[in-house]
Design a protein that fits this description.
Blueprint (H helix, E strand, L loop, with lengths): L1 E5 L3 H10 L4 E5 L4 H8 L1 E5 L3 E3 L2 E3 L6 E7 L6 H9 L2 E7 L6 H7 L4 E6 L2 E6 L2 E6 L3 E5 L6 H12 L4 E3 L3 H22 L10 H19 L6 H14 L6 H7 L10 H10 L5 H18 L2
Parallel strand pairs: 1-2, 1-6, 2-5, 3-10, 6-7, 7-8, 11-12
Antiparallel strand pairs: 3-4, 8-11, 9-10
Helix pairs in contact: 6-7, 6-8, 6-9, 6-11, 7-8, 7-10, 10-11
This protein binds 1,4-dihydronicotinamide adenine dinucleotide and ketopantoate.
Pfam family, one: ApbA
GO cellular component, one term: cytoplasm
GO molecular function, one term: NADP binding
Amino acid sequence: MRILVFGAGSLGTLVGGLLAPVHDVTLVARDPHAARVSTAGLDIVGAESTHVSPAATTTETGHSADLALVTVKSFDTAAAADALADCDVGAVLSIQNGLTEEMLASRLDAPVLAGTATYGARLVEPGRVECTGVGRVVLGALDGGPDPLAERVGKAFRVAGLNTLVAADMPRRRWEKLAVNAGINAVTALSRVENGALAGDDAHDLAHRAARETARVARLERVSLPNRVAREAVDRVVEKTAANRSSMLQDVEAGKRTEVDAINGAVVDIAAEHGFEVPTNRTLAALLRAWERGEGIR
Ligand SMILES: NC(=O)C1=CN([C@@H]2O[C@H](COP(=O)(O)OP(=O)(O)OC[C@H]3O[C@@H](n4cnc5c(N)ncnc54)[C@H](O)[C@@H]3O)[C@@H](O)[C@H]2O)C=CC1
Ligand SMILES: CC(C)(CO)C(=O)C(=O)O
C-alpha cells in the first residue's frame, strides 16, 4: 500500500516507520527531521527497535497515495486537509486525539476513516523516534458499521506488525476516548501531575465529571455512551497509564499550544449546538486557554 503520513512528528513517524518495511511510506514532515530521514533513515528505539528508510519530504501537495494517515496536532488539521485536497489519495485515516475526522470529511472527497491510537511516541531528535509504549490502533467507518475499506487498511497495518483492531463501533470508541482525554488530559495538565496521581484524589472526581459531561453530549449526538462506561474508561486509563504524563501536560511543560480546542473545547461547542451546558468542560477549557494566552506558549 502507498501510505502518505501527513504530519510526521512523534506518532506519525513511529507508525509510518513501523509500516515502512512492508509498505511504500512517505513521511510529510518538517526539516530538519525530513532531511535527516531522507539522508540517513529513521531509528526507532524503545519498546520497538529497528532502522528503516521511508521516503521523507517537506513538500505537502502533489502526492499520490492509497492512504493518507493524518497525524498532525488537531489544530493543524484544517491546513493538513487543504494540502491533502491537492493530493490524489484513495482514503484518509486520522489517528489524532480529538474529533478531527469531521473536518477532514467536510474538506476532502476521499473517504475518511476514524481512528484512535494508544501507541506512545516521542520524537527524540531528527531521524530518531522512541516508542514509549506498544499500544493499539483502532480504526473503522466514521459512522460505524462494517467497512471493506477499513478492513483493507487494518489488514495492511497488521501485515506490518502493528497491533490493529478494525471496529464497527467507532462513534462510541471516539467519544469514549474523547471523554478520557477531556478528563485526564485537562486535569493533569492544569495540576501538573502524572495520570496515576488522579487516583482517589479530588481531582479524580473532576476528571469523572468532565468525562460524564462528554458522555451526555455523546448521547445528544445519538452515540450510546453511558456515564458509567465513560467513568470506568477514565479509571482504567488512570490505572493502566499511571506513570504517563498526558500529552496535554507534556505540551504545557514544553510551553506548546495544547489540543484543548479539539478536546474540552469541542465538548463545549457540540453541547451548545444542543442548547446544553457542560460547566466542567467549559471551566477546564477556559483555564487552559487562559494559560495559552498568558505566559504559557513560549
Ligand atoms: N505522541 C503520542 O504518543 C500520541 C499522539 N496522539 C495524537 O496524535 C496527534 C499527533 O501527536 P504527536 O505526534 O505527539 O504531535 P507532534 O507535534 O509530535 O507531531 C505533529 C507533527 O506534524 C507536523 N506538521 C504539522 N503541520 C504540518 C505540515 N503542514 N506539513 C508537515 N508537517 C506538519 C509538525 O511539525 C509536527 O512535527 C495528536 O492529535 C496527538 O494527540 C495520540 C496518541 C499517542
Ligand atoms: C490516554 C492518554 C490520557 C494517556 O496519557 C492520552 O491519550 C494522552 O495523554 O493524550
